[in-house]
Write a structure and sequence with these properties.
The chain has helices at about 65-75, 100-115, 125-140, 145-150, 185-200, 200-225, 225-245, 250-260, 285-295, and strands at about 5-15, 25-40, 45-50, 55, 85-90, 155, 165, 175-180, 265-270, 275-280, 300-305. By secondary structure, the chain is α+β, with helices and mostly antiparallel strands. The model has no long low-confidence stretch (mean pLDDT about 95). Strand 3 (about 45-50) and strand 4 (about 55) form a beta hairpin. The chain is globular and about 55 Å long. Helix 2 (about 100-115) crosses helix 3 and helix 8 (about 250-260) packs across helix 9 (about 285-295). About 40% of the residues lie in helices and about 25% in strands. The strands form two sheets. Strands 1, 2, 3, 4, 5, 6 and 7 form a seven-stranded mixed beta sheet that branches. It has two domains: about 5-165, Ribosomal Protein S5, domain 2, CATH 3.30.230.10; about 170-305, GHMP kinase, C-terminal domain (Alpha-Beta Plaits, 2-Layer Sandwich). It contains nine helices and eleven strands. Bound molecules: (R)-mevalonate. The site of (R)-mevalonate (MEV) has 16 residues, from helix 4 and helix 5. (R)-mevalonate binds next to helix 4 and helix 5.
């Protein structure tokens, strides 16, 4: 019997979350430690089987509305509105931790359905379908999660611009990712920043512009293999994100712990208010020490990933 398969990896925003919604650039990298798989097989009715829910697609809880939408839209795109399937999703990406799990789920579903019908899925179609799902999941997304989880290269991303891949030209840099264990609140954080922006345009737009400037500095630092400057701008970005009210005590505490244990930079990543933080280290040994310290300080899980491509 025919089966369709699709996969997607998670993503990490290195720099530029939130300000990216206002047109400033951001840098995203694939998070290779985590991925999502979707399996599609014919069934007598539409069934969804995932970590959260197992049952009829028509009765999914509100959190899974975007999943339902992406399945329906992909089937319309494939001219297969009347076929019914069992769709099974398995994931090692922690959900709602700012790692792009909602976009990655959508990417893996679209890939699995196109695979089932043996129709090639162009990058444009994939992005279009995933962005529609993200609008439902996140309200006003910049599109960075969809872009980052549908490719497997680092991106220098600007909203509504053609995708620009970006070589991570650094030799000795390791990223530690730590999960606070608290669900991030991307949707709420993005809409709170929008309210702050309405109330106090002058101050908030200064923070946003500054985050954009820091992201451009990070890009320059990476192209010069200057990890110290990169760490420094990450630290400054965390302060700016705090001013936008998207950090919280747990994230701030982990950022401080990482710096105390030798990280050359540390900041929250993704939507904030929970979710994950990242720290930058110059050696694997240092990264291992920082990860252990973050665990002792209460991180729910940690991962280490080499940032660069150069050896
Ligand atoms: C979420 O991963 C990144 C945010 O900038 C929201 C977005 O860009 O859509 C917080």
């Amino acid at each position: 019997e025919k089966i369709g398969h699709g996969q997607a990896s998670g993503k990490i925003i290195l720099m530029g979350e939130h300000s990216v919604v206002y047109g400033e650039p951001a840098i995203a990298i694939p998070f290779q430690e985590t991925f999502i798989s979707t399996k599609v097989e014919p069934d007598s009715t539409m069934i969804l089987d995932c970590h959260y829910y197992s049952g009829a697609l028509s009765e999914v809880p509100p959190q899974l509305k975007s999943v339902k939408e992406v399945i329906n839209q992909a089937l319309i795109e494939l001219h297969q509105k009347n076929m019914t399937f069992k769709i099974t999703i398995t994931s090692t990406i922690p959900a709602e931790r700012g790692m792009g799990s909602s976009a990655a789920v959508a990417v893996s579903i679209v890939r699995a359905l196109f695979d089932y019908f043996e129709v090639p899925c162009s990058p444009e179609t994939l992005l279009h379908l995933v962005n529609r799902a993200e609008k439902i999941a996140h309200g006003n997304p910049s599109g960075i999660d969809a872009a980052a989880t549908s490719g497997n290269e680092p991106l220098f991303f600007i909203k509504n611009h053609p995708l620009e891949s970006f070589p991570m030209n650094v030799s000795n840099a390791f990223l530690i990712v730590a999960d606070t264990g608290i669900k991030g609140q991307t949707r709420a954080a993005v809409s709170d920043v929008a309210h702050l922006f309405e109330q106090n345009k002058k101050e908030i737009s200064q923070h946003i512009t500054e985050l954009g400037r820091l992201t451009k500095l990070a890009k320059q630092a990476i192209s010069k293999d200057d990890v110290h400057t990169l760490g420094n701008v990450m630290n400054q970005a965390h302060d700016q994100l705090k001013s936008l009210t998207v950090s919280n005590d747990q994230l701030d505490q982990l950022v401080i712990t990482a710096r105390e244990h030798g990280a050359i930079g540390a900041k929250l990543t993704g939507g904030g208010r929970g979710g994950c933080m990242i720290a930058l280290a110059e050696s694997k040994e240092q990264a291992v020490k920082i990860a252990a310290a973050l665990k002792s300080a209460g991180a729910f899980a940690t991962w280490i990933q080499s940032l660069g491509v150069k050896k």
